[in-house]
From TrEMBL:
Enzyme class: transferase
Residues annotated as domain Beta-ketoacyl-[acyl-carrier-protein] synthase III C-terminal: 237-323
GO BP term (any one): secondary metabolite biosynthetic process
SUPFAM superfamilies associated with the record: Thiolase-like
KW Kinase (keyword) present: no
GO terms assigned for molecular function: 3-oxoacyl-[acyl-carrier-protein] synthase activity; beta-ketoacyl-acyl-carrier-protein synthase III activity
InterPro entries in the record: ACP_syn_III_C (IPR013747), ACP_syn_III_N (IPR013751), Thiolase-like (IPR016039)
Protein name: Beta-ketoacyl-ACP synthase 3
Gene3D superfamilies: 3.40.47.10
EC identifiers of the protein: 2.3.1.180
Length: 330
């Protein structure tokens, strides 16, 4: 970051998951597989699903409310919503979210980065804060994956869950706890078809609106790209991987997280995880993980933390933070 410019500092944190828990017994019976098969392939035991009629903005309001309460300031200048499952194609969902939070009149925009959306949103918010355009930004990652996942598809039905996570970022000193470090961002559109929803866009207006994924290829690309983002983010922060206290990476699949730790030569105990009872919640994954860890002792003030994600696009990103003391937003 350029000397003299403010950094984006984490000052609020919150999340929300729907109350309905879907266990592996339900999913296994529908797919014709065993519960152990699901657990071994994904690391997921339970995931949350919204009830029919509940949409992405409703979850985002819950998480955003908690993050705003955690921050304590009561006001932000802008609202960003990272999501791959907006309530409608038009208008974007962020203005509706802002209005529902009592923030009508502030700038509001969607960030469509799939599983990397929250990391991209952090970078967008950080740039706006560094430029002095805004002084406080609410960023929510939320996805209603049950609206696009085919319940009969073995590749996707067992892994995804619905959730929302949120942070408040304020302009602050680059050296203070909570200040986000330099960002690593990248994309590879040549492999965009590895994770895609074919229908509903201008290219295929009447096609099927359900998620398709090439699991084996995604696994390989995730290891390469997310591993690179982790290593590069640590290097840009001036940390060796062995100096990092916690790794908070997108909860795509437990096997990916284990393989990443092994490839990087990092103790798996330093990789925080909640995939067992959350599943892959796409844009909500990283903030949901951070909130769970902050609440339950997985993160402590002063720890060096690397954030990273990989998803459709293909897209990936990473950054660093020295963890601050954050109040719970209940």
């Amino acid at each position: 970051m350029t000397a003299g410019r403010p950094a984006a500092v984490l000052s609020g944190l919150g999340s929300w998951q729907p109350p309905t828990v879907v266990g592996n017994d339900v999913v296994a019976a529908r797919l014709g597989v065993s519960e152990e098969w699901i657990l071994q392939r994904t690391g997921v035991c339970t995931r949350r699903r919204v009830e029919p009629g509940t949409a992405t903005v409703e979850m985002a309001v819950e998480a955003g409310t908690r993050a705003l309460k955690s921050d304590g300031s009561g006001q932000v200048d802008a609202v960003l919503l990272a999501t791959g499952t907006p309530d409608r194609l038009c208008p974007s969902s962020a203005p509706t979210l802002a209005a529902r939070l009592g923030l009508c009149g502030v700038a509001a925009l969607d960030v469509a980065g799939a599983c990397s959306g929250f990391l991209y949103g952090l970078a967008v918010a950080g740039g706006l804060l560094a430029a002095g355009t805004f002084h406080r930004v609410l960023l929510v990652g939320a996805d209603t994956m049950s609206s696009v996942v085919d319940p009969e598809d073995r590749t996707t039905a067992a892994i995804f869950g619905d959730a929302a996570g949120a942070v408040v970022l304020r302009a602050g000193d680059p050296g203070e706890p909570g200040a986000l470090g330099p960002f690593v961002l990248g994309s590879d559109g040549d492999h965009g078809d590895l994770i895609h929803i074919a229908g509903g866009g201008a290219l295929n207006r009447h096609g099927r609106v359900s998620l398709a994924m090439d699991g084996r290829s995604v696994f390989r690309h995730a290891l390469h790209r997310m591993g690179g983002a982790v290593a590069d983010a640590a290097e840009l922060a001036g940390w060796s991987l062995h100096e990092v206290d916690r790794f908070a990476v997108h909860q795509a699949n437990a096997r990916i997280s284990r393989a990443l730790a092994a490839d990087l030569g990092v103790d798996p105990a330093r990789w925080i995880s909640n995939i067992e009872h959350a599943g892959n919640t796409t844009a909500a994954s990283v903030p949901l993980l951070l909130d769970h860890a902050n609440r339950h002792g997985g993160l402590a003030p002063g720890q060096r933390v690397i954030l990273a994600a990989f998803g459709a696009g293909l897209t990936w990103g990473g950054t660093s933070v020295t963890w601050p003391a954050l109040a719970a937003g209940d």
